[in-house]
Design a protein that fits this description.
The protein is of the alpha+beta class. It contains 4 helices and 4 strands, in the order αβββαβαα. It has helices at about 1-10, 50-65, 80-90, 90-105; strands at about 10-15, 20-25, 35-40, 75-80. Strands 1-2-4-3 form a 4-stranded mixed beta sheet, sandwiched between helices. α2 packs across α4 (about 90-105). The longest helix has 18 residues, at about 50-65.
């Protein structure tokens, strides 16, 4: 959508082979009580069952990382096709560390 495209163009990003994290600072006047995180898992990642598994693991990892994220930043996490393959071999702790590192590099880490 146009809103997502604008978000990605104006925000900062960091990427690794399996993930891309976009960070965008909210308006200073906007009330911020917690970070907002959006996930995208396209059909390129796999079939419906595989996408659901990847989405579920991403949501769980984000819930573990959320307390360390800046509260005035919006994040969008994009799963690349290689994430499904990586999650077969790696554990949730790996995904959590990957999101934490990329969010920090993109500007969404704790201030």
């Amino acid at each position: 959508s146009a809103a997502f495209d604008a978000f990605c163009l104006r925000g900062r990003s960091a990427s690794s082979r399996p993930l891309v994290v976009y960070a965008f600072a909210r308006d200073p006047g906007a009330e911020a009580c917690e970070p907002r995180v959006g996930l995208t898992v396209s059909r390129k990642v796999g079939g419906a069952v595989e996408r659901d598994r990847v989405s579920r693991l991403l949501r769980e990892a984000v819930s573990l990382v959320a307390p360390s994220l800046a509260i005035d930043v919006d994040l969008v996490i994009v799963a690349r096709p290689s994430l499904a393959e990586a999650l077969v071999e790696e554990r949730l702790e790996w995904l959590e560390a990957e999101i934490r590192e990329l969010a920090g590099r993109a500007g969404g880490g704790a201030a």
